[in-house]
Design goal:
The chain is built from 20 helices and seven strands. It has 357 residues and is α+β, with helices and mostly antiparallel strands. It folds into three domains: 106 residues, Beta-grasp domain (Ubiquitin-like (UB roll), Roll); 136 residues, Fumarate Reductase Iron-sulfur Protein, Chain B, domain 2 (Orthogonal Bundle), CATH 1.10.1060.10; 73 residues, no CATH class. Strands 2-1-5-3-4 form a five-stranded mixed β-sheet. A hairpin with a 2-residue loop joins strand 3 and strand 4. Helix 12 crosses helix 18. The longest helix is centred in the middle third of the chain and has 15 residues. It starts with a strand and ends with a helix.
Length: 357
Amino acid sequence: MADFKLKIRRFDPESGEPAYWGDFDVDLPPERSVLDGILQVKDREDASIGIRCSCRAAICGSCGVRINGKSALACNTRIGEAAERARDGAITIEPMGNMPVVKDLITDMEAVHWKKVRRVVPWLLPAEEPPEHSEYIVPAEAMLDVTQAMACIHCGVCVSACLSMEVDPHFIGPAALAKAYRFVGDPRDGAEEERLKDLAEDPHGIYDCTHCFACVEVCPKDVAPMNQIMRLRRRATGDHGIKDDNNGYGHEKAFVNLIEKYGTLHEAQLLPRSFGDGSLVKGQIEPGAVKQLIESLPTALRGLKSGKVTPKKALLHPKLPDQDQVRRVFSEVESKDDRVELNLYIVGESGGEEAEA
């Protein structure tokens, strides 16, 4: 048995008092969970501590909190390992971020998480009438692409860690968008293009993600929500050519075209090409694109002032010495009839025959 110190953030809205920290000592083996420590405190010292939990086995997803500043399931975090990462030897435990706090470690999942999940229409929209005397039969291999998204237990940990949601609370969020891919990728669903267009046109949709990887790092079930968001983008642009008002399509085309041409990113051309659906000329002459470029002038001027962008860099951008090899990669990938999506939930991080296909 070992002694551990817990520093639990307390908040009771009914008291009218501000949040404060409560310090507690627990006596547990290091392999036990942080949730066990919280429950020991609740049992022995203060029964008023609010914590939501159920299975205690990382299945129900109800005990999401922030431990030492990082979002996690309390039942899935060993108390000994948490103590090793703690500052000043005390394990700090707070409610999840990006959601209103109900009491202590309990957050209002309905106000944010479930509201956003409902936003993406989380049920099948069949392409045809269901069979009269049988169920839909789908080949097992056709479902492999969505198994990773299906593993989500809706704990909200990724929502808590999402940096985009901190800046834009209206962002649909990693959990809901991962759920969206679960149906976009399902061969039984008949509304793939409509779903993708809806999420691409929404200013708080698939192009609001900033690729910070926070949701990937904290997900207890390896759903990798950011990967699912990238899949939604590839389907929207590559499979359906959806040109959205958020310039997500144009930005992707601009980025890819510049790397293919130069090998490195020509940042001075990225903005006009993005507004021009990947074309530099179109981005400089099309009225709608010109309007957006003019609106972006303050950003460009700040870049010039800081020295990040110079007139020379804006006009000239060197190609890599072995740029032919970069183009060869593009040619090899584009020559394939089908796009291979690597699902690490199935093939594992080391890959295998499936990953080499």
